[in-house]
Amino acid sequence: MGKFWRDCKGAVTVFVSLLLIPAILITGTGVDLARIYTARSIVQDANQLAANSVLASYDALLQDLYGLFGFMKDSEEIGNMVKSQIELAIKGQEGVGDHVGSGQMLFKLFDGSNLQPGTVSVADGHNLGSPPILRRQIEEYSKFRVPVIIANELVGKLDTFKTLQEDAKVIKKKMEVDDGVEELDKWYRKVYNCIVELNTCVQKETDASNDAHTASDDIHGKLSDLSEWWGGYLAALKAKKEAEKELEKAEAALAAVAEEDEVALAAAQEAVQKASDALKSAEMALQDARAGYEMAANALATRSKTWKDKRDELIEELEHYIDLFEDSGDGLKYLCKKADEAKVQLTQKIQELENSLGGGCSDDLKKGLTEPIKRENGGEEKSVIDSYKDLTKYNLSPMAAAMADNTGITGFEGDIKQINETIQHLKDASLGSYNLVEFGEMGADGITAAFPLPEDEHTSNPYASILHSKLTPEPIIADPGFQMFQASLLYATKNGEFYEELHNLYRSGKGDELGKKNVKNTITNLFKAAKSIFTDLTDPFEGFNPEGAKHLSGGTNTSDPSTGSKFGTNSDYDWSSEDGGKDELQDSLDSDFLSLLGDLGNKIGNKILLVAYDTEMFSNYTTTGQERPKLTTYPETNMAGVKLSTEVNYYFQSEVEYLYNGNLADAVDNLKSVAGMIFLIRFVFDYVASFSISEVNTVVNTVKSVLSWTGPFAILTSELARLAIALGESVMDVQRLRTGEKVDVYKSNETWTFSLSGLARMFAEEVTENTIKESMNADSIKSSEEETERGLSYLDYLRLFLLLVDGDTLARRTANLIELNITNYRWKLGANEDNMASAERFDLSKASTDFTITTKVDMRMLFLSMPFAQKGINSVVPPKTFPISATDYRGY
């Protein structure tokens, strides 16, 4: 037994040794594992502490001014701070005691380890320059700060615009009808002028007939004179022949007398002398007769030539009347055809107007156009649409055909045929076989050659047969049979009825023409005054002049024509005549802007908080400033409690306008766009209301009454007056809104502001533009508490407009303003454009919101790093260090 124990002593040693080696391995490894676990926990705690420090290092100015969180990723201080925080947390500080948990103990824990403290990494795109991230922060900020009433009011006012799009469509269709009426009026005027000219053909044919008869009588008389001179020449020729015979007899008798018979010789010589003198007298008479004949031939030729020229002129004038019937140029058939085409187009436009009334427009607008108009004396007039229809009741082409060609009217062959007959009469005017103009064409020499003087005293007079032949034309009577347009013969086609209406419309020299001119000029001045006031906006507005900057060097224009309007400020339209204002109105009513407003309810999404944030954080034109301290009760501070002023806000008094229009380079352009949009919207609302405003209807009906002599076309001018008055009211609305007041959306008699008392004399004399502008001056505007309670303000319109802007686009524009304002405030630029151009711009894209911090430690393995462990087993050497990595995520 003893031997056994002695033998076992070595075995136990070997056995214990064999057990100790694995125990040491397990224990050493366990210690290293414990150290790694403890180190990992310490590194994670250090990481979290550093991450929290980064979160606490957000941009304070950004937070204070706009309630947004972000730290500047390119800041060197953050990296140094993270490194210091982690080293401090892991290594501790020198001089700390050795008690457990002290820095020295921690340092010993990491003794021999390689520490790589805090690498801060920012995720790409995770910054306030990203619209979705910015919107998320704004929504979070606004949830607990935006008054609930603002959101509720914003939603509640959307119903206001539901009929806006349909109302605009109806108004545009009505203006197209008015254009159609104006076009028809143009052609009717041309038709009337053509008819008036054609009707003068009666007098022209009568004058031609008189000229033809006068010429015929004169030529016949000249021919008679020529015949008498021919007869006188024949008589002189006979007298000469007889004188020659008498001389021969006397000379023969003288030859037979003896020379010594002195008495007989003297008598015979005297007889010869007398015969010779008689012959000389006969020869002289013959010469005188020849000269007289030649003069008469010249007179005949001259008168015939005069008639030929006159006849050609008359024929040309009569042929012009035929041209006036033609289906081209300025011909009656052509003009009537064009008038009928204009009438067809007007009929179609009236139908389109009626159809548009079924699309959901305002009841007031529908009633105003379709219901009979009440007179002050209790009577009724036709509705506006029925008055339009009255203009389309005539078919003009048959009227023109009836006058020109005869459309089966018994006893009338048509004026064209009748005029041609008259022309032919003029061409055929003749004496015998000779046309009256032939003597003129022959000339005096031709006449004397055709009708030579006689050489024989027995020659018969060649003019006798001509002078006794039939004289044509016979008869071109005073009434040649031409039928004027309004002749009773043509009444079957309503020519007479239509002519009477045209005559009342367009005849000149009527006393009412002055009244018509005064009305037209006054309406034109209404358009001009509205445009002028809107463009200038008199004191105290100073036009579009915000207190902040007006321009930004390098700013971009991202405005979208589909969501804006320059109505009233567009220099492309000339309002010196109402046509310019009407054209701009129609173009603006046809834009996408009003349709987008009408569909606002479907475009809200989650933008209400963003819109509320923008309108509560930034200034607009009605914001109180130093130069305009009493214009409005708008809050002087933003949602964060920061004063709105040029100290902070670079585009002070035009910021929200920029958020809508998007022109970062030009504040005035943004103000004009918003004012133009409000002007256009107010026009639609005011135009609809005008049908129920008694004062407006009184003026419209008065215009119609004063111009009743113009027939159904009176509707054109009276409705033009309504249009101009609605524009005037809209201008005054914009003035009030820009002072911070509220304006009732749908006006009543009590809330209509444009007083027309100054226009009461508009029909007696022209009301000047200046007079109208005085009546539209802000001082003359009447106010109403009722409007203040239920109306919309300038800011309300801006909030609604911002709903039209894409959410991310609005966020980008919001970011632009924040960047400008922080730059303006940080560097104390005072909204100076030159200073901003050279300043270092704050950049929201560098304001990070999400980041990671990664800390790495290569932990020294106490056991495995020992020499015996490093010998390895089967050439496998364990690592001396073990990597530890801790990553912490933070974001907002």
Keywords:
single chain, 892 residues, mainly alpha, 3 domains, 31 helices
Write the layout of secondary structure elements.
Elements: H1 2-55, H2 60-66, E1 71-72, H3 76-91, H4 103-109, E2 114-122, H5 131-143, H6 148-156, H7 164-199, H8 201-256, H9 262-323, H10 332-356, H11 363-370, E3 373-374, E4 380-381, H12 384-390, H13 396-404, H14 415-428, E5 430-431, E6 434-435, H15 438-450, H16 464-467, E7 471-472, H17 495-506, H18 512-536, H19 578-589, H20 592-598, H21 607-617, H22 655-661, H23 667-690, H24 694-706, H25 714-738, E8 742-743, H26 769-775, H27 785-790, E9 792-793, H28 794-802, H29 807-826, H30 833-838, E10 847-848, E11 850-860, H31 867-870, E12 881-891
Antiparallel strand pairs: 1-10, 2-11, 3-4, 5-6, 5-7, 8-9, 11-12
Helix pairs in contact: 1-3, 5-21, 5-29, 7-10, 7-17, 7-19, 7-20, 7-23, 8-9, 9-14, 9-15, 10-13, 18-25, 18-26, 21-29, 22-23, 22-29, 23-25, 24-25
Describe the structure.
The two termini are 81 Å apart. The protein is mainly α and 892 residues long. It has 3 domains: 2-126 and 849-891, no CATH class; 134-161 and 511-838, no CATH class; 191-333 and 398-483, no CATH class. A hairpin with a 5-residue loop joins β3 (373-374) and β4 (380-381). It has a 3-stranded antiparallel beta sheet. It has a 3-stranded antiparallel beta sheet with strand order 6-5-7. The chain is built from 31 helices and 12 strands.
